[in-house]
Amino acid sequence: MKKCAKCEVIKDDSCFHMQGNKLRSRCKPCRKIDKKAYREKNKEKINAQAKKYYEENREILRIKASAHHKMNKEKINKRKAEYKLKFPEKEKNKQLKYRQRIKEELTDTYIKEVIKANARNKNIKIKNIPLSLINITRDGIILKRLSYGENINDREEVLCKIKIIDSIINIKYLTLVLFQLKMV
Ligand SMILES: [Zn+2]
Fold it and tell me: How many Å from the N-terminal Cα to the C-terminal Cα in the chain?
């Protein structure tokens, strides 16, 4: 039995954390309150430290996170599935926002989907799409989007560029198909 230095209640030893081989002076619930107050008071400092730590250890943290994900895949997937069931609207919203974002930002993921959807070779594998094809497809999409815009001074020029890019894309597709055939 020990008296807490803060709340001054006499409690069982199990209500105190150990510090080395001694019991701490404050009980577990009091320490919890202390820690929370400290976090509130030093929020900015703690956030800055966490950010600095993340930036300095980015690579190792990424590897750790990936390993953790691999080891706990089933558990994580189960939790995700439960969340989806519990909050279907939230999940739908999240998906919509994600789709909108990758479409607006023309991320590699989005471009790869576009390439796959338009590829003549339906067996094309997302992971085999070369970066050069992704980049040129992105350029093509940007030009097409520009041509639909209202502030185009020289529409003809844009359309001409699109034609050139389209033909390059077709040649690239052909190369890709040949490449894939060799792989099979
Ligand atoms: Zn206490």
Answer: 74
Please state, rounded to an integer, the average pLDDT across all residues of the chain. 84
Q: Let me know the angle formed at the C-alpha of 164 by 161 and 165, rounded to the nearest 5 degrees.
A: 85
19 CA distance to ligand 1 middle (Å): 16
Instruction: Take residue 19 and report the two structure tokens written for it.
Output: 């510090």
- Ligand 1 centroid to Cα of residue 66, in Å, is 40
User: What is the reported pTM?
Assistant: 0.45
Spans of all domains in the chain: 28-71, 73-105, 106-183
Dist. CA 70 → ligand 1 center (Å): 41
Burial class (CB in 10 A: 0-12, 13-18, 19+), 183: exposed
Q: Which phi and psi angles does 27 have, rounded to 5°?
A: -70, 165
